[in-house]
Design goal:
With about 325 residues, this protein is α/β, with parallel strands linked by helices. The protein has 11 helices and 12 strands. The longest helix has 17 residues. The chain starts with a strand and ends with a helix. Its cofactor is Mg(2+); Mn(2+). It holds the Pfam family Iso_dh. This is Isocitrate dehydrogenase [NADP].
Length: about 325
């Protein structure tokens, strides 16, 4: 029996996490869920969006799965996601991007993985105002962070029979910061019998739209990873189906990477695919590969049949109907 910290989130978070729990339990794997709350609703009581008991639960269980949590734009509290990543040193953001037959998109047979450095770059949050005139953000890139994210990418490629790793950067302009990243990428690549190349980030964006099938594992600093992982999700149907994981040396948090969509909360129309896919990643991480594949095959059958899809996928099924359809194929 595994014990997993469950953070439902807000907006549609509680609905999609409830669906995920039903599917995971129906697969037969034994998990005990320790549910804790995080987000804006807790600020009045705890003076923080992430009370200490949330962090302590994750540290105790070493693994968590969370629904989306609203982050204010330009004001308010710091992103819960960023805070968790930095406080638990979850230095890898892993996002597999894979096509499903039956989901409408302009591309077929996309199968690539974004490996995003998760703790520094502009997301280090080192900012200050320049009087009333402007503001400055500092881009922090360090050698140890570059080494460990590149090591993870190449080891992931090796472990999963991937053929190539591409380092993404902007070293033609930011010669010191991104130069450090790409030079470290090249040093690490020499340790592995895996094909490697590097690509400037703007060219990467264009080429991913033109020929996504040319790419396999792509590793990059924080900001580029945030942007390109969302771009890649658009290649296969959107953020509503893409899983995500934040992984460190000691802890891992799996999450739906889409927004909290408060405008459709409590209407029973939200698509839980992203967090169900994240649960599949979690089960593989735990070594429960057969249960993970069981859920994955059920999802594939639901998409291929196309009769019980949620509105965003072109159907008219409710969250509950979609969930029950997956369970039927388990």
């Amino acid at each position: 029996m595994y014990k997993v910290t469950l953070i439902p989130g807000d907006g549609i978070g509680p609905e999609v996490t409830k669906a995920m729990v039903k599917v995971v339990e129906a697969s037969g794997v034994k998990i005990e869920w320790e549910e804790v709350e995080a987000g804006e609703a807790l600020i009045e009581k705890y003076n923080t969006a992430i009370p200490n008991h949330v962090i302590e639960s994750i540290k105790k269980n070493k693994i968590a799965i969370k629904g989306p949590i609203t982050t204010p734009i330009g004001k308010g509290f710091k992103s819960v996601n960023v805070t968790l990543r930095q406080s638990l040193d979850l230095y890898v953001n892993l996002r597999p991007i894979k096509s499903f037959k039956g989901i409408k998109s302009r591309y077929e047979d996309v199968d690539l993985v974004i490996v995003r450095e998760n703790t520094e770059d502009l997301y280090a949050g080192i900012e200050h105002k320049i009087g009333d005139y402007g503001a400055e953000s500092i881009k922090l890139i360090t050698k140890p962070a570059c080494e460990r994210i590149c090591e993870f990418a190449f080891q992931y490629a090796k472990n999963n029979n991937r053929e190539k790793v591409t380092g993404v950067h902007k070293a033609n302009i930011m010669k010191l910061s991104d130069g450090l990243f790409v030079n470290t990428f090249k040093e690490v690549s020499e340790k592995y019998d895996v094909s490697a190349d590097d690509l400037i980030v703007d060219a990467a964006a264009m080429n991913l739209v033109l020929n996504p099938e040319k790419y396999d594992v792509m590793v990059m600093p924080n900001l580029y990873g945030d942007i390109l992982s969302d771009l890649c999700s658009g290649l296969v149907g959107g953020l509503g189906i893409i899983p995500g994981a934040n992984i460190g040396k000691d802890y891992a948090i799996f999450e739906a990477v889409h927004g909290s969509a408060p405008q459709i909360a409590n209407q029973n129309i939200a698509n839980p695919t992203a967090i169900i896919q994240s649960a599949i990643m979690m089960l593989k991480y735990l070594g429960e590969v057969e249960y993970a594949k069981k859920i994955e095959r059920a999802l594939e059958r639901v998409f291929l049949k196309g009769e019980k899809l949620t509105v965003d996928l072109g159907g008219n099924a409710s969250t509950e109907e979609f969930t029950e359809e997956i369970i039927k194929y388990l």
